[in-house]
Every structure is written in structure tokens, then in C-alpha cells.
Design brief:
mainly alpha, 23S_rRNA-intervening_sequence, de novo design (two linked rop proteins), Four helix bundle protein, about 75% helix, 23S_rRNA_IVS_sf
Amino acid sequence: MTKSFEEFDVHKKGIVLTKLVFELLNNKSLEKEFGFKDQIKRAVVSITNNIAEGSEYNSNRQFTRYLKISKGSCAEVRNMLVLSRELGFCNHEEIQKSYNLTIEISQNLSNFIKYLDTNNKV
């Protein structure tokens, strides 16, 4: 029996990252940065959405495609975190946990893609 997307550890980590990013966006210095906030929200939600959507195709090729999109969204979130620091919206300490989690999720997605390619299983 195939696992549902909710059972994948990388999906669970994506949920944690989403919560962290949404908490970070409550920062007062981001109050008027609607476009910035909207972009990072869409990117972080895209990570888990693509894992979920890809898992439903019952095709390793399609699932891998969506995992790669999810990986790209993860990199986008990491970049937005760097930008939020560089633009003075947040400090290093505020973004560090989220930043580290994006690296971990990205690596997990890479490993998942390799697993699917090697073992031809979902």
C-alpha cells in the first residue's frame, strides 16, 4: 500500500516550516510589506502543496516532477529569508531556524527524488 502524503517526513517538516514562516511574518517591520509577505507565503505553502499533488498521480515520473518543483519553492523561501535579513525586516536569529529547515527539507527532497529514481516505488 502506498503512503499518503501526510505520512512523509518531508511533508511534516514542510508544515513546521510553514508555521515558522507565518509566525515570522507577524514581525512589525514587515507590516507594510504586502508583496513580500504574499510572495514568501505562496512559496512556503507551495512546498507541501506540490508534495501532496505529486503523490496523487501514482506515477514516479510525475511525483518526481512535483518534488523538484517543491525543492525549487524551498530554495525560494530560503532566498526570501535571506532577503528579509538583508533588508532589515528580521535579524539573523529570527530567521535561523527557518533557514536551517529549508536546507534540511531541500536535502530530504533530493534524497526522496533519488529514492524514487533508484527504487521505482512511491
